[in-house]
């Protein structure tokens, strides 16, 4: 038989049950038992889905209450001192304190949360482990063992999953001077203890995720794999080493030779490596072929896959396993929930549950022959043919416009040094000008109004009136606080990508296609199925309304072409560069309409710019060329006096700083608070020529930062960047926060800026004024 398995499943639940349970616990509305009950029920359901699809094992350990890397930090006892003393086991509140800076309301140990950054080239965020130079490791959390016992009690065969020791160390940061790799010897015994415990619990396989094998690794790291896995192989349970997100390339020989029982390859991003590994793999080892795309939502070409798999099956026999390319964490749970998508488009798609069904079809075809699944293959074949010939896919007007793009369309009229003078002349901002990144709290009232409007319970006029009231409130609060450049607050937007996807031709929006971004934060990526264009202005009316309420400049807020591309499920029948150009042309029209309407500060966010960078150095130059070109095409059509901002968050910028400069944005705002301004060093060393706003407080934590803390960060920034080019802002948008903490934090931020201007401790809006408001 052909063994079927998955590397992981979505966590949130069909109705985002985990999100609501987490947020209720964090607010103090429920206790730990209620949260654990929800988690246990979700695990049961997701294991049942795997079993019902015919998978041979259920995967245990992929579920997490916040983040799987944080889970490993806690299991290994990697808990920085600021989170308080840890007893024999890391408790739930310490776990959430590491994630958010605070476990519950009035947490007496509230502190700075762990650093958050992107998981390889995905939109999932992980908590960066913080290692001490002499870090000691110990088994400090037993959650995985408890989950194995749950699955075994339900009658399932179990494959457990662990983030491998080399990848754990690579993804971590070490404080002060120290060598992360030197900590491996002390780490491996704890992994050995975990493996022994899992074997004793009846686990049949352990999937060891080592995704760093798809990176350009230094020789010392590559050479560390073999001795490390020699030490781990004798723990009584077979190991399946799993890699994903790219080809192994020069690491292929290392992976094939490791003393493990099997190897999983991402055959979607590196299909050419399947046959090479099959040639080199020792005759006792399993080859797990990740043939179903775990990162996109398009239906698989089952005929083409069988054409490739049947010869491998003939060679490898039962040693050929099938799986998705990576964890299904990155796709929505179930297409069957989408009752409002039209039948044609729906027939082109597969979410997590449907991908398990595709695996089952492939497995049965390999066991019994194609005739046994002829009906399923015919259905797949018809859907693929319909998509290829659909009139919805190609728009001749879009293609003609792309063909007419000229080199001058990518250039501002004058260089930054000349533009800056014109912008400062009309803006007349003080030193250390203050602003925010764009969004303000999405209150229960705002969400209810949007829900009622979509359900037809609220008229368009009533909905517009409520959104205008929310915008007016945001503008008035910003004026009271003393912010210099305002935003309209984005009350009308459900999400920074979904909002635009709803209004762009060539995009579809799901009702339940939620994907976890971090913690309880979920997004609903648009599906880009055809050529993209802008039928009508998307933001102009809302932003010009906000500008009509104040003499201070209000920023136009747009999401950039690379981020719209990266944070959508993008079509796979057109190169990404061409899709990005279509998005850029649609945004170019919006930027010029905003300018024509009197909006002279326009922010085009690109938080995915670094995230989309290919994992391998060899592919980066090509990506950066088209990504920079897309941003410039979107933004270069304005007058010199119009100030273009961009925003990037939770990324390492050192290796792309030259390309960031090539974007030629007048101002860039970046996340730096959780890294204690470390990320600013790249801009300083590069002598970044334009203006920059390093984030001075972490918006993903409910903690209100003190004036002194933000003042300290600003002084660190001023030591690296000329003060005349510094802006003051939070790390990111404020939509997930509540108004009281937002007002308190922004008042402190404005005060910190005023202190650096030498204005004394005059503060922002007096507390009494805010309370009266």
- How many strand units? 21
The average pLDDT score comes to: 94
Q: Largest beta sheet: what is the strand line-up?
A: 1-5-7-8-9-10-11
Give the fraction of residues assigned to helices: 40-55%
What structural class is derived from the secondary structure elements? alpha/beta
Strand residues, percent: 5-15%
Describe the global form: globular
Alpha-carbon distance between the two ends: 70 Å
C-alpha-based Rg, rounded: 26 Å
Largest sheet: 7 strands, parallel
Low-confidence stretches: 759-773
Q: Which assembly state applies to the chains in this document?
A: single chain
| SS summary, helix count | 28
Write up this protein:
With 773 residues, the chain is α/β, with parallel strands linked by helices. The protein contains 28 helices and 21 strands. The strands form 6 sheets. The chain has a 7-stranded parallel β-sheet with strand order 1-5-7-8-9-10-11. Strands 16-18-19-20-21 form a 5-stranded parallel β-sheet. Helix 17 packs antiparallel against helix 18 (460-481) and helix 26 crosses helix 27 (739-756). It is globular and about 75 Å long. It starts with 16 loop residues before the first helix and ends with a helix. Mean pLDDT is 94; it is low at 759-773.
SSE layout and pairings?
Layout: H1 17-26, H2 32-52, E1 58-60, H3 68-75, H4 92-100, E2 116-118, E3 125-127, E4 130-131, H5 143-153, E5 158-163, H6 165-171, E6 173-174, H7 184-200, E7 205-209, H8 219-232, E8 239-242, H9 252-257, E9 262-266, H10 273-280, E10 286-292, H11 302-316, E11 320-324, H12 343-347, H13 352-368, H14 374-389, H15 396-403, H16 416-427, H17 444-454, H18 460-481, H19 498-501, E12 505-508, E13 515-518, E14 521-523, E15 527-533, H20 540-548, E16 556-559, H21 561-566, E17 569-570, H22 576-596, E18 601-605, H23 620-635, E19 643-648, H24 657-662, E20 667-670, H25 680-686, E21 691-694, H26 707-718, H27 739-756, H28 767-772
Parallel strand pairs: 1-5, 4-6, 5-7, 7-8, 8-9, 9-10, 10-11, 15-17, 16-18, 18-19, 19-20, 20-21
Antiparallel strand pairs: 2-3, 12-15, 13-14
Helix pairs in contact: 1-2, 11-13, 17-18, 22-23, 26-27
